[in-house]
Write a structure and sequence with these properties.
Structural class: mainly alpha
Distance between the termini: 93 Å
Number of helices: 14
Helix content: 40-55%
Number of strands: 6
Order of helices and strands: HHEHHEHEHHEHHHHHHEEH
Strand order of the largest sheet: 1-2
Radius of gyration: 31 Å
């Protein structure tokens, strides 16, 4: 465009602007201030807090005019006409960029120009999800579905795709990513997908857990898969953090001596159940054949049973040096550790008798159960 033509265009719009403002109000710039100023009436009807925010999603391909309509309908701006004028001014000023799609958290107390700039610059709402230590893929899937992020079926299916092209350290032949989805709190912007969630958790495992294994590779007898599997069992057994070294020590010694681990969480994982103090595992359940049943099979199960945290990973890499071969859970989350089978059976009897006495005291009319 020639310079003269460009100047003529600007001159035209400068002449047009007061006319537009005049049509919208007898005091043009006063009208602009009113249209873009915060307003108490715009506060959502769900509460009287002037700092309350409104979440609004702008899909891909939404026009500037439609964004203005949506903002006005949500009570975030007073005038779509002012919004359209602001949009036109950005074009006249040859401003780089455009309105960005995404989820935004906006306040009706913000000036219109602030809201417009946030959407133009793509300052999308930051959201998060939290995966606790010891969760399995099934628990994660239930959580994501419950939060409305996506279906549990979609997540489970995505965990069966092993991205060794991007994460070559992942063990070969694993059927799913159980154990390698690191438990933590993660932030994201926009829409969360199963793949995005998985990538974030694998990235964190790579950043946090993998260096620990690499540093201890010369002293540990375990492969990456074995280490993560052992740590996942320790994670499920340890209720009190201080007991992790002893629990890891018992399992490490049993592995060295070729004894079955005898870990309840592996049976629960195989059967898809969770025992409670009032509903412990039955003998039939413990006797159910499965590659994950560490009462019937010596050694480690084929894959992890949960996502271990850093404490369980560290305890399993270098277990404490103890003589313990057994432990049994009390009903407060702690355990009694024993060196011999006789000590272990005595501890079991003492704990069970104490439990029975508590139940009889709480319900004296209830008959004793038959074991």
């Amino acid at each position: 465009m020639k310079t003269v033509s460009r100047i003529s265009k600007w001159f035209f719009y400068l002449l047009l602007l007061p006319a537009v403002l005049g049509l919208c109000g007898w005091q043009g710039w006063a009208w602009w201030s009113w249209a873009s100023a915060p307003t108490a009436e715009a506060t959502p009807a769900t509460g009287n807090d002037p700092n309350q925010t409104i979440q609004i999603e702008i899909p891909d391909g939404t026009t500037a005019q439609q964004i203005g309509q949506d903002l006005e309908s949500a009570g975030l701006i007073r005038s779509q006409t002012a919004w359209n004028l602001w949009t036109k001014l950005q074009t006249l000023q040859n401003r780089q960029g455009s309105f960005q799609a995404g989820m935004y958290e906006l306040s009706p107390t913000e000036p219109m120009e602030t809201i417009a700039n946030k959407i133009w610059q793509g300052e999308v709402m930051q959201r998060s999800f939290t995966i606790p230590e010891g969760w399995s893929i099934q628990q994660m899937a239930d959580y994501f579905a419950g939060q409305g992020f996506f279906t549990k079926e979609a997540f489970i299916e995505a965990t069966r795709q092993i991205p060794r092209d991007r994460y070559p350290w992942l063990p070969e032949g694993i059927p799913q990513l159980e154990g390698f989805l690191y438990p933590d709190t993660y932030k994201f912007a926009g829409t969360l997908t199963p793949q995005l969630a998985i990538d974030q958790m694998l990235d964190r495992f790579q950043q946090v857990a993998l260096p620990i294994y690499e540093q201890g590779k010369g002293v540990t007898p375990y492969s990456l898969l074995e280490w993560t599997t052992l740590a996942s069992i320790v994670e499920k057994e340890a209720v009190v953090s201080a007991e992790r070294p002893q629990i890891a020590s018992v399992f490490a010694r049993r592995l060295r001596e070729g004894m079955p681990l005898g870990a309840d969480p592996t049976v629960e994982y195989a059967l898809g159940i969770r025992q409670t103090p009032d509903q412990p595992l039955t003998w039939d359940q413990v006797d159910t054949p499965s590659p994950y049943n560490t009462y019937k099979n010596a050694g480690l199960p084929p894959t992890p049973i949960s996502s271990p945290g850093i404490a369980s990973l560290e305890a399993s890499l270098k277990p404490a040096d103890t003589e313990y071969l057994y432990f049994v859970a009390r009903y407060d989350g702690t355990h009694v550790f024993s060196k011999t089978l006789a000590e272990h059976e005595s501890a079991q009897t003492s704990i069970h008798d104490g439990r029975d006495a508590q139940q009889q005291t709480a319900s004296p009319a209830k008959p004793n159960s038959v074991d």
